[in-house]
Each structure stands twice: as structure tokens, then as C-alpha cells.
Design brief:
Helices cover 20% and strands 45% of the residues. By secondary structure, it is an alpha+beta fold. It has 3 domains: 136 residues, Lipocalin; 102 residues; 150 residues, no CATH class. A 9-stranded antiparallel beta sheet has the order 4-3-2-1-9-8-7-6-5, with helices on both faces. A 9-stranded antiparallel beta sheet has the order 11-10-18-17-16-15-14-13-12. An 8-stranded antiparallel β-barrel has the order 19-21-22-23-24-25-26-27.
Length: 432
């Protein structure tokens, strides 16, 4: 008898589990998929959109705006700014499709210059300038004027932001914001009148941000890294973050006050225009009696001797400082860049150490630059002994700047940098 009841119970269990999809949802899976794709397509075609595209690791690069104008028959006009070549406007027409792959996927699989320029292979960049750039986006949801998606390759959260501006007007305004920020350095970050320790990198290619904060209940302050994209009005961060109970997400540029600020005024990033910006310009130091103090010369001679003895090379006394621009016009981020000629075959090799150069005005209104040590860059692993000079240059790393010479347009081309804590450490930089 027990066996009969047990069999009946098991039978009832299987019967109750054998419900099909429609018992849980009012519509079948295929109906929901079709509806989801239709919803996504409808949203895209109702307005023009700007992708806040954060490729690869968003912390490495930052975001780039891609303008989309959807048309009939699955056609789209795409416009963007060529951050690799002078911010020219890139424009291309393309086909797109929306299909199901674990959700509704928008795909721009057909090559077009305006979207794929960051991943287009070349001799200099066989895998493309940025290795992981999305061209397929999984629809998540829509809230107000933002469609939220996820990049298929990067897995980054990617926003599509509604705009009423034409592509030309939007990108023109973005270009002006980028130009304004590129000429200036962020000198303070305030949230509800509290000064937050931070670092902001903004150039044509890199849009990174990091800050240190101690939230309620935390024992120690924590370093947070994020990134931002330039918009037609200011900047938007990769995602909202909270400091002192205040959300930080979208900031508007006020050129009159030279500040980026939130609509409610609780968040402010103050900007300073320095006479020149090492993060965006190429300068060099010649280590000799006329251009460097004895202490700087001694530090250089130590690494020059190490290069000869350990690396079999002849280290050039010309050290590139700031952004490095190759003879072919390729730009590399701010760094110290050394060159060593290998005596065995006469070939010259570069060695790069990544840097940030923070420009600011001190309490007396004088121009200062702080040398902030980054991390070892291209080829540095072959020249580790050069690190001692980088350490020397970044120790007590705030320098007072005296402009010595300007060109005919009034732009500085020669400047003396004097260490503020040790005035025996000084050197002269020349514009490359």
C-alpha cells in the first residue's frame, strides 16, 4: 500500500513540474523575444541617439561619443570624432540588424569608418588602436531618455542617450568641450563643499578619473577608478557613483566660471588654464651644464653608466617629457621617454615610463607642475635601471615653472622647472 501511495505522489510531482512556459508567463518565449526586439527597434527609430562607447577596459581609455541616426530598411547613418587624427568628423552609412542571442542584440557587423576606426588594424596597430571595441549591443532596458545595453565583447554597460540635436551640431559642441578641457587642468573636486582627493586625465584620447573617499562606516579611504565621456554640454561618467550621499554622474561645463558642475551645484570640478600642458604637448630635456642642475646631471649619469654596463647601450641625454609624438605623427600618452643606442648594432631603442603632469596655480597664483609617477610602459622591462632617475624626478615632485621664451604667437617654447622643496634640482624644458 505504501508503494502505491509513493508512486502516486511521484506521479503528481512530475505532473506539477511539467508546466510549459505559458503557465509561468502570459506569452511564450518566442513571443516575448519578438516583442522585446520590436520594442528595441521602435525606440531606436523614434529618435537620434549617441552611444557613450567605453571600449576595452574603460579605465584605460575612457569614453567616445558615436552619433546614430536610424533610417528605414535597417539603415543607419553613423558619425563620430576621429580621436586618432585631429578630431575630424568621420561619417559612414551602414546596415544594422537586431537578432536574438540571449536577448535582443543590435549589431553593426558591416564595417564602417565612423564606428570601427578604433578597431581598424594597421601596420602600427595590428589588432587596432584599441583591442576590444563593441559593435554588438545587448538590450537591457530603457529609462527616460537612455537605452541601457551591454557590449558583447567588452561586457561594459553601454548607454544610448537620446539627443534632439543634429549630428553636426552635437559633435561640434563635443569638440568644443574637448578643446576647452584639453587646454585646462582639473585642480579641485568638491562634493557638498568637501574637497575630495582626485586625479583627472583628459586629452583627445584618454578620459580617466580617480578619486579617494571614505564613506560612512568605512575604516579607511578607498581609491576608486572610473572614466568619462565628453558630451555636448560637459561630461558623463561611466556610471553614477556616490560620495557623501551625493550622486555624481553628469556635469555641465560653465566656461565663465571655468568649472564642471552638477545641476544642483553640489558637485564641482574647478579647472585651471596653464601656460602649457605636458599631458598634451611634446617637450624635451637636454641633460647638460646649460640645461640641468648638477643634481639632475648626477642622476642621469648614474643611469647612463648603468645602460652602458648592463645594457651595452649609449643613453641619449635628450629625454622627452610629456606627450610623445613620433616623426610619423602618432601620439603616445604623457611619459618620460628615453632613447638608447645599442652599441652592438647601432640600433636605437625607446624606453617609456608613463606619467601624469598635473598643472595648477599655488596660493601665490604661480604656475606649478606636479610630476606623478605612473607605471612602466613600452620597452621599460629591458631598461629597469632607468627607474632610479624617474624616482629622482618624481621625489618631492612639485616644480615651480618659469617661462623663459615664447614663440611669435605668445606660446611658451622654453621653461625652467625648479623643485619647490629642493631648489638645487632644476632643469630646462624645450618645446619639441
Amino acid at each position: 500500500m505504501k508503494k502505491i501511495f509513493l508512486a502516486l505522489a511521484i506521479g503528481l510531482m512530475f505532473t506539477s513540474c511539467q508546466k510549459d512556459d505559458t503557465d509561468i508567463f502570459e506569452k511564450s518565449a518566442s513571443e516575448r523575444t519578438t516583442e522585446n526586439q520590436g520594442e528595441f527597434t521602435k525606440y531606436l527609430n523614434e529618435n537620434n541617439w549617441v552611444i557613450d562607447l567605453f571600449p576595452n577596459s574603460y579605465e584605460d581609455y575612457g569614453g567616445y561619443p558615436i552619433y546614430l541616426e536610424f533610417k528605414d530598411n535597417y539603415k543607419v547613418k553613423i558619425k563620430s570624432l576621429d580621436v586618432l587624427n585631429g578630431l575630424d568628423v568621420l561619417e559612414d552609412d551602414s546596415n544594422y540588424q537586431i537578432f536574438n542571442r540571449s536577448g535582443s542584440v543590435l549589431s553593426f557587423s558591416e564595417f564602417n569608418d565612423a564606428l570601427h576606426f578604433l578597431s581598424d588594424p594597421s601596420f602600427a596597430f595590428p589588432s587596432g588602436p584599441v583591442k576590444t571595441v563593441d559593435y554588438e549591443f545587448i538590450y537591457q532596458n530603457k529609462e527616460k531618455d537612455i537605452i541601457y545595453t551591454k557590449g558583447m565583447k567588452s561586457r561594459n554597460n553601454i548607454r544610448f542617450v537620446k539627443t534632439t540635436k543634429s549630428a553636426d551640431d552635437y559633435l561640434k559642441d563635443v569638440k568644443e568641450v574637448m578643446g576647452y578641457l584639453g587646454d585646462r587642468t582639473a585642480i579641485s573636486f568638491n562634493v557638498v563643499d568637501e574637497k575630495i582627493k582626485f586625479e583627472m586625465k583628459n586629452s583627445k584620447k584618454f578620459f580617466n578619473f580617480q578619486y579617494t573617499s571614505k564613506e560612512k562606516g568605512e575604516k579607511d579611504a578607498t581609491l576608486h577608478k572610473t572614466a568619462f565621456v565628453c558630451t555636448d554640454k560637459g561630461i558623463r561618467f561611466f556610471k553614477p557613483f556616490i560620495i557623501n550621499g551625493v550622486e555624481v554622474f553628469e556635469l555641465t561645463l560653465d566656461e565663465q566660471e571655468s568649472v564642471l558642475k552638477s545641476v544642483d551645484g553640489k558637485v564641482e570640478i574647478k579647472l585651471f588654464k596653464a601656460p602649457f600642458n605636458l599631458n598634451l604637448e611634446s617637450w624635451y630635456l637636454l641633460v647638460n651644464d646649460d640645461n640641468a642642475s648638477k643634481k639632475v646631471k648626477n642622476s642621469f649619469e648614474e643611469v647612463q653608466d648603468a645602460d652602458l654596463k648592463q645594457g651595452g647601450g649609449e643613453l641619449s641625454n635628450k629625454i622627452y617629457t610629456g606627450m610623445y609624438i613620433t616623426p610619423g605623427g602618432n601620439e603616445f600618452g604623457p611619459s618620460f621617454r628615453f632613447f638608447s643606442k645599442w652599441l652592438q648594432n647601432g640600433t636605437t631603442y625607446p624606453a617609456e615610463y608613463n606619467m601624469t603632469f598635473r598643472s595648477f596655480a599655488d596660493d601665490n597664483g604661480e604656475f606649478n607642475i606636479e610630476f606623478i609617477k605612473g607605471k612602466a610602459g613600452f620597452n621599460w622591462k629591458y631598461y629597469p635601471y632607468l627607474t632610479s632617475m624617474v624616482d629622482f624626478m618624481t621625489k618631492d615632485s612639485v616644480y615651480k615653472v618659469e617661462v623663459l621664451e615664447k614663440d611669435s604667437s605668445g606660446k611658451p617654447i622654453k621653461a625652467k622647472l625648479i623643485n619647490k622643496k629642493n631648489t638645487d634640482v632644476w632643469f630646462i624644458l624645450n618645446k619639441n
